[in-house]
TrEMBL record:
Short name of any one Pfam family annotated for the protein: Sigma70_r4
Secretion signal span: none
Function: Sigma factors are initiation factors that promote the attachment of RNA polymerase to specific initiation sites and are then released.
Protein name in the entry: RNA polymerase sigma factor
Family membership noted in the UniProt record: Belongs to the sigma-70 factor family.
Gene Ontology process terms (BP): DNA-templated transcription initiation; sporulation resulting in formation of a cellular spore
Boundaries of every RNA polymerase sigma-70 domain copy: 66-79, 227-253
One GO molecular-function entry: DNA binding
Top-level taxon of the source organism: Bacteria
Keyword line: DNA-binding, Sigma factor, Sporulation, Transcription, Transcription regulation
Amino acid sequence: MIINKVEICGVNTAKLPVLKSKEMKELLIRMKNGDESAREVFIKGNLRLVLSVIQRFNNRGENVDDLFQVGCIGLMKAIDNFDLEQNVKFSTYAVPMIIGEIRRYLRDNNSIRVSRSLRDIAYRALLVRDRLINEDNKEPTISQIAKELELPREEVVFALDAIQDPVSLFEPIYHDGGDAIFVMDQISDTKNGDDNWLENISIKEAMKKLNEREKLILTLRFFNGRTQMEVADEIGISQAQVSRLEKTALKHMRKYV
């Protein structure tokens, strides 16, 4: 996908205007009062936002003009639903809306399609497989899974084989009449999750509550991997003192973590 082309959908991206915060607020107020000309100016002033978003979807072989048009739909939806009373920047509100619109487009136009019925069977089979593993501590056979589902073995095999092909992260894999479950919903990042991020912040904040000696001891012990004896030799106190100071510092930090 060529993302740096100057003209997209007949729009010269090199000449797109950039609105200042004050201008955007004034336009939003005018739009709220029904000023259509203000809406047009506001849309043009935020097309660069759409451009920045579609760069996240490069290397997919998608037509950049199509993605730009879909992104503009997301932008207009954001404009229609934005609440000026909330203390939120428009770009902060609009970017997820634009991304969501593009994701829906990519999902609905994905060339690799598996029927909903097959996806449902495969998903149910995977749930049964996990349950049987937990119950019996061993991998169940396809026949066992088929028996639990009350389905022919061949149908279960076919369904599981169907979802082994490469699929988009936005491909729906299960639908029970409510919200669909997508492939990306079943994948987690244990290394960079929000919990780890928040935990690191809370630890750093708690460390600020310690005195310099306590900070040094915990840093050497838990960030540099030193033993209590090595820490004692480095800062010139006994191992017993290091142990006592370490316990006191950790107890103090727990109040803030």
